[in-house]
Amino acid sequence: MKTIAQVLGRxxxxxxxxxxxxxxFAAGDPALLKARAAELVSLAPDAxxxxxxxxxxxxxxxxxxxxxxxxxxxxPIELGFVQSLARPGRNITGFTSxxxxxxxxxxxxxxxxxxxxxxxxxxxxxDINFSAPLYIRAIEAAAPTFGMTVAxxxxxxxxxxxxxxxxxxxxxxxxxxxxxxxxxxxxRDVIIGVAARHSLxxxxxxxxxxxxxxxxxxxxxxxxxxxxxxxxxxxxLKGASPADLPVQQPTKxxxxxxxxxxxxxxxxxxxxxxxxADEVIE
Length: 282
Description:
Low-confidence stretches: none
Number of helices: 12
Shape: elongated
Helix content: 40-55%
Strand content: 15-25%
CATH topology of the largest domain: Rossmann fold
Largest sheet: 4 strands, parallel
Order of helices and strands: HHEHEEHEHEHEHHEHEHEHHE
Strand order of the largest sheet: 5-4-6-7
CATH architecture of the largest domain: 3-Layer(aba) Sandwich
Mean pLDDT: 93
Distance between the termini: 27 Å
């Protein structure tokens, strides 16, 4: 949110002077998300910034007129949010977060650092992650290339996270993929802690995951996307229609590796991968 406020400030929008910003967070709670969406729409804002597909879905149940700019939405066409990327139509536009080959990249990186991994568990919350099927299809399609099998582990609370990872750890060759959604971000430390306790490599999530102790991630640059979203908010506040602003796809990705975690797991990160990394945590 700080990035968005900074960009808006550079564009002339200063909170308390010529703009008011109201924040609502649901922390991965589906019921709370619905309530927060209703609250925001009731304020009759000039524009709404929605982060994640579940937030967009909740907002579209409340309004088809208030302009919405989204981020962290994987495939807005398949999800039914927009008519096309070039001309989204209706009251919504934004920035996607998904490129199917990225899922294969996750498996490739996992294979290079942890070559013994042959089974991966995909952690996600189906109640909050509307985009999970898109990611899962891409992961399942790529897995045979790397000789891996995929187990889907929908979780709803800390106990579910513990159980899913503990079951994976009963046999050798396990690895964990964490899909990015508001639930997994909120429960990030639990997921990382359980994976570490069972000595399992964990890939996925935002860059905050490896910074907090997971093995690594390769993901789009969220801060860059937030900055672009702020520019769309600026254009809408100045009269542009979201229906005429094309949906844009990610252009910047970052590889973040936690070398300390790799060593704790007894893994060796190839020097070539370290050279390519945007951030190495030691």
